Structure formats: structure tokens, C-alpha cells
Amino acid sequence: MQFKDDDNDHQQQVRQPDGNEVFPFERQDLVDAQTRKGPLDPHEQPHHEKRLGEEPHETRNAVHHGVEALPACNVQRHPASEEDGGGDARDDEQVDELGDVEQPEVHARILWVNGSTIGTLGNFSASTGKAKSKKTFNISAIVAAALKNDEVLKYSAYLPPNKRKILYVDTEQSKYHCHKVMERILRLAGLPTDKDRDDFVFIVLREQTPDKRKQIIGYMLENMPDVGLLIIDGIRDLMYDINSPSESTDLINLLMRWSSGYNLHIHTVLHLNKGDDNTRGHIGTELNNKAETVLQITKSQQDGNISEVKAMHIRDREFDPFAFRINDNALPEIVDDYVFQQPKQDRNFSLTELTEQQHREALENGFGKQVVQGYSNVIAALKQGYASIGYERGRNVLVSLNKFLVNKRMIVKEGKGYRYNPDFHY
What we know:
This protein is of the alpha/beta class. It is built from eleven helices and 18 strands.
């Protein structure tokens, strides 16, 4: 059950969940901006007996059993939420019906920075950063922009009328800190913090298991029409092993099913490795390869109170990086006069020397259409390819070049190797 605050600012549980609820989780975990009205209980939902009559089994395909009873006419609104990507006839039928019924949105773009698109309906994106880099403050600005359909920090948003609802899922913080995040978002959007809202729902899943978290998110999406933006902070807690290739693939496929099936945008959060600027685990690799945009939030080396935001990967053109600080009202604000330090590079290596066409020719000559296995072989392919266009350099320069190409998605990881990606944006 949803919970509320008493006059002494203590949380009180409204009621205990009964045994007939589909998901036996405490519904006070729903930290809704609409503080006096929680989501409908499962027995109050339409078609309850057909769709939500069974309590899910503690198995990987629990949610799948809850969806199987859906009538065919509802398939386009309720995509399969099973966690393994089974290829049975029912799955094929769902894909066919989605393809026949779903029509592309006229206004697919919902998030952008200085005209550069970072989020569209039917896709997912991510924010990355090391601990204490202010990732959640940055996401608060994104959500605030979506709530008001306007600009906050450098983020502009437009959610169409039938996609105005926002679902925010937090897997890490306590209810107290989640209340602070929710209040911060409302203040950033210039909205009152003491009035009910039905377009912003905040769920706290800190105490749940990875499987249960995915079940609850799927359940909420099925029972919340008109969701245009889903925030998952953070994605690592939806899996058991971040280095598992199969589990990472399954989770990314689940995000793609949710985003396309419900025609919404998902923005999630993943930490960077402590020792470098690479996203953590195999799930990080999958995110880099499949996400529409990956934002990187970095604590400034010039001033620890300032955070820098740039596009680590982006399908649209890159936007100019920007910086923000936390002001006296505990809200993020733009640092207008901030000067970014230029990254140190090998003195013999200048990225401006090469055009996009030169990069394409070199990568085609070095990689072709094959997947190059092993780091030393990747460096050798770069050496051969770039030498073919007259750009011969030593190993240190090639190592820097490799990092540049990976960050630009000009070469992408596939299995245990790397391949040339001709669809990159330079």
C-alpha cells in the first residue's frame, strides 16, 4: 500500500497487502507524487480474472504466465514481459501483431539538448558516471523537463498528450531519500510539492530481488496507460551478474520490448568502472551497443562541486558538453562560464587530421565485414587500415585511436571481438 506522512513527518503505512495481490510486495513501496491515492489494487483492475488471476511463480518466466491469457486484440498494448527471449509461436504472433498494429508516432522525439536528440519513443538511453558524480541530480533535471514539457538545465522535453505519465523506479535508495529526489524534481519543474499529481509515480524497489523488480515494473507498465518516460535508477539491480553475457542480453532485450511494445522511452543509470571511463560489466557493453544515447556525468577536476555532462555515445549529432553545480536550494543549476579542459592526447595524434571519409576508408580496409578477435589483433587491424590511407602511427597512438573509435561507435564490440560499424555518426 502507498504510504503517507503524519503531522510529525513520520511515514505511516495505510494498510498491509492482502494475500490476493498479484505481486506480494508491500505497496507502500509506491512513492507516488499523488500522495493520497495509490494505484488500483489488482482486484480492481479490468479483466482481472483473465490477466492477473495468478500469483507469479518464483521463476524466471513468472511475468510471462500473467500475460498469456491476454486476448489477441490487446497484444499491441501489452507486450510479452518474460525475461527469457523464448522463440515459441506465441512470441512470433506477438511480433507480427505489433508490426501490423503499431504505427510510428508523428512526434517520436521527446528529449533533446541544444537541438540534438537524446531520447525518442520506442528507444532507451542511459546515464553513466562514477560514484558521487551527481548522476541522480542530472536525471532529476531530465524528469523535471518532461513533467513541464519545457527546458530544465540544458534538457528540453516534449511528451505528447497521450504519453504524459512518468514512472520513476529507484532500486538503490531508501524511501526517505527517494522522497527528497521526488520533491527535488517537482521543485525543478516549478510545480507545488504539496498537491496531488496523477502523471508522476515513484517506486522504491530497494529491498526486492532482481526478478521481483522486473516483475513489478512490468506489472506497473501493464496497468499504467499513457506512460511516455520510464526511469530506472539503476539497471544493475535488475540482474544478478553484470558480467553474464546471457543475462545482459536478456535484460537489454527486455528494455527493447518494453520501450517498443508500450511506445515509451526508457532512461536508465549504470556506474562507470572506478579505474577507467568504461561502463561496468557486460551489461555496460550491451548498453553502449544498443542504447540510443549514453550520457556521461563526470566530477570536474577543476572544482569538485561541479559536474560535467557530455555524450559518450549518441546516434544524433553530438551536443556541446555543459556543466552544473548544486546551488543553495539543493537544486542543480548551469555553470555558464565554465571552461572545459581539453583531454590530453599523444602529441603526434590529432583527430582533426582525418575526415569522416578517411576514417571510413581506413576501417573498411582494416576490418572489412569481419569481427576481429583479441585486442592485439584489433590494434593490428587499425595499424593496417590507417596505414593504407597514409596515416602510419605507433602503438601508443593506435591505442588512443582505438578508444576514440569505440567512444564514437565507429567500431563496436560483438561477442569477444570488435567490428566496423558503418552506421556511425562522426
